[in-house]
Amino acid sequence: MEQNSTKERLDGRVTATNGEQNGTSRRLTDEEFDRYSRQMIVPEMGKEAQLRLINSKVLFIGAGGLGCPAAQYVAGAGVGTIGIIDSDVVEPSNLHRQVGHATSRIGMKKVDSLITHLRDLNPLPTYVPYTFPLSPENAADIISQYDLILDCTDNPATRYLISDVCVLLCKPLVSAASIQKSGQLIVLNCPPTPQGKLDKKYPPCYRCCFRKPPPANTQLSCGEAGIMGPVVGLMGVAQAGEAVKILASGLHLPSSTPETPEDDPHNLIQPTLLIYSYDLNAAPGPFTFRALKMAPRKKNCFACGENSPQTLTLEGIRSGNPNYVQFCGIQTAKTTLPIEERMTALAYHVVKQTGILPNHILLDTREKEHFSFGSIDGAVNFPFGKLLMKAATIKRDGGDAEEILPVKSAEDPIFVVCRRGLDSQEAVEKLRELGLDHGGKRKIVDIIGGMKAWKEEVDPSFPFI
Amino acid sequence: MTTPNAPPGHFTILYFAAATSFTAKNVESLPAPLSLRKLFDVLEERYEGIKESVLDHSLVTINLAYVDIPEEGEEDVLIEEGDEIAIIPPVSSG
């Protein structure tokens, strides 16, 4: 790790509180002057704001779809120290959205790849690489060295960890997230306010907005659900916009806001959640941007509320309390079917090839987009979501369960395959609940491991996504 | 920013992210008025399982402003004709 001025590291609050002391009154170098001139002449920017940027330290947690575009603009704007933490390496599937990487850097650590790109863009900042994951053990040590944190991560456990540590260390947090065709952005804990302070309205933390994570089996990653490049790019750029605004105006500095937040004209006391959604079907879609007024810090918040100093401490986090992984759940199969209702992909292939397998229905419960790239011969697409909805309708309104099947053949056994073998098990259960197994006379069988297993066991050329 | 107006006697409900996937809808109209406390039950009736999978950890807004779902003993809020409700689940990836 590159070392910066130890004094500034030890006390980030000193930054920009006193122009003489840390250089908000110094002259800009010729290079800085040339490089930042276009943004410095924007109303309300000027030299002081530029020097505040130069004297600031920003941490990007995640060097992916959000971190890449965000870091580009923050580096371009001249923020003096840029830390980036991520343990992943660049893969081809990243490049449609992770614009800080390159085809020539596939296989390189994302942090090193992004810093290569940023140095080319602006060599003046100090770049600090962390090529390991953020963890409860190291989070406070790293976060404490920065003025502002950008959450560009991809999982709920890390999101809660980052927010909690930011509350405890009084750091403002710009949080964004994106999946498929929608994105979210919110500035949290800004201006930074000590934990447990509730005498007035104060800004919320992540837990104030999202008290608990979604159940583990409904949490989707970009790898599973997909992501449109411009959607996540836009959210990352918006994050950079907020970061530059906060730093240029000094909102990240607790000591520079002596007024109470309510009296301070610069306060962000109306926290806003920006929602962007992008409809691939509707040309100028009606639901594009929405700015939602969020509530202030919550009295009963676990991390920043009334009793939070008793429930959440840095020492606690370091020693595993709260347990973030457990809190966010571990993804497990919701149902595990008995073995007689399951068959490996290879076994299915063999019995089909040898003609032992009688006429049957093969349902493929992947989304139609996945199905469009290829499927097992004879498979009929029946997306899982549709199946659940149809099953719920039958349960509620009654009707002939046989009707929900995309192919009609009341006697033939049903095989179900999905992407990785989780949804298919649930689908088998649902179909049985609807009585489609005719009290056990008709077999309904799950293909173990889904199309992933099919690729591994039967057809290596299968285009698995 | 325009949303199709709800027909008379209805409010508009918008679904985002996982709520869109679960309902297979971006928007629909539901009969107004409706007590905010009953909103989740009404949705559960239409979309079995949505409470546990989506609603319990989502945030809810009325006319672009965050609202807490009133708990027992807390004052209820009435969703009126023409209101716009949004169901916003957290998104984690990036």
Q: Order of strands across the widest beta sheet of chain A? A: 3-2-1-4-5-6-7-8
Tell me which CATH architecture of the largest domain in chain A applies here.
3-Layer(aba) Sandwich
Question: How many structural domains are formed by the residues of chain A?
Answer: 2
In round numbers, the mean pLDDT of chain B is 90
Q: Unreliable stretches of chain A, pLDDT < 50, 5 or more residues?
A: 1-21
Quote the beta fraction of chain B. Answer: 25-35%
Beta-strand portion of chain A reads: 5-15%
Class by SSE composition of chain B: alpha+beta
Fraction in helix of chain B: 10-25%
Structure description:
The complex is a heterodimer of chains A (465) and B (94). By secondary structure, chain A is α/β, with parallel strands linked by helices. Chain A is built from 19 helices and 13 strands. Chain A has an eight-stranded mixed sheet, with helices on both faces. Chain A has a five-stranded parallel sheet with strand order 9-13-12-10-11. In chain A, strand 2, helix 6 and strand 3 (126-130) form a beta-alpha-beta unit. The radius of gyration of chain A is 26 Å and the shape is elongated. Residues 1-21 of chain A have low confidence and may be disordered. Chain B is 23% helix and 29% strand. Chain B has helices at 17-23, 36-46, 50-53; strands at residues 10-15, 27-31, 34-35, 59-62, 65-67, 78-79, 84-88. In chain B, the strands form two sheets. A five-stranded mixed sheet of chain B has the order 2-1-7-4-5. Chain B has a two-stranded antiparallel ribbon with strand order 3-6. Chain A: Residues 15-26 have a biased composition (Polar residues). Chain A: It is found in: Cytoplasm, Cytosol.
Features:
heterodimer; A: 465 residues; alpha/beta; Rossmann fold; Oxidized Rhodanese, domain 1; 2 domains; 8-stranded mixed beta sheet; 19 helices; 14% strand; disordered N terminus; B: 94 residues; alpha+beta; 5-stranded mixed beta sheet; two-stranded antiparallel sheet; 3 helices; globular
